[in-house]
Design goal:
This protein has 206 residues and is mostly helical. It contains 9 helices and no strands. The radius of gyration is 17 Å and the shape is globular. It is found in: Cell membrane.
């Protein structure tokens, strides 16, 4: 995978992880309720769920591009439309996202369980990966390149939530996130729309 293409993948994965939502609220809740360790565990276990979905998506799209290239192209166009829709929704989001994280007592085991369940229990996540990863898979892509895609999504997701958990130890990250949630949403929206536009431009005849 060219480095420039990988940068696009990493940037979109980062914006997806940073966007305020139930996953972020879950990590915040466990960090505030149990301290640094449960927050880190919640973030890492969430990344495992994300990696599982990314792996299933890459394998499925890799097989599809060999057997049904026309269907894969249709999925790619549909994915671009879905990414554009997500981008518009993010741009229209208000200042307040689902960042209310009530302080409740928690343990590392509960954090690990919730991290995986929140990731695997989010049906929109698999749709996001189908839309996103279809833009980065090409005919004849090696297993190593597919692995790079999966580990990029997983490491960026886990890395972001671990940073959030570590930062909350100083009690400054949550207020910052709540204060800047609308800017995070706007940046996410711009990135998603840019990716959708790149897909459409690449598919047009030169």
């Amino acid at each position: 995978m060219p480095f420039s293409l990988w940068l696009s993948l990493a940037a979109v994965c980062a914006m997806g992880a940073m966007s305020p939502g139930p996953s972020l609220a879950m990590v915040l809740r466990h960090t505030l309720g149990g301290g640094r360790a449960p927050g880190v565990v919640a973030g890492l276990s969430h990344a495992l769920g994300v990696g599982f979905y990314a792996l299933l998506t890459v394998w499925g799209l890799g097989a599809l591009i060999v057997r049904q290239p026309m269907l894969f192209q249709i999925i790619g166009w549909g994915g671009a439309a879905y990414l554009a829709w997500l981008g518009i929704r993010a741009l229209r989001a208000g200042r307040h996202g689902p960042l209310e994280a009530g302080v409740v007592a928690t343990t590392r085991r509960q954090a690990a369980r919730d991290g995986v369940l929140v990731a695997l229990g989010n049906p929109k996540l698999i749709l996001f990966f189908i839309a996103l990863l279809s833009q980065f898979i090409s005919p004849g892509m090696s297993l190593m390149a597919q692995g790079v895609i999966v580990f990029t999504a997983m490491l960026i997701d886990g890395g972001w939530y671990v940073l959030v958990a570590l930062g909350l130890s100083h009690s400054r990250v949550l207020p910052w996130l709540q204060r800047h949630a609308h800017w995070i949403n706007r940046a996410t929206g711009v990135m998603l729309l840019a990716l959708a536009a790149r897909v459409v431009a690449g598919a047009l005849p030169g």
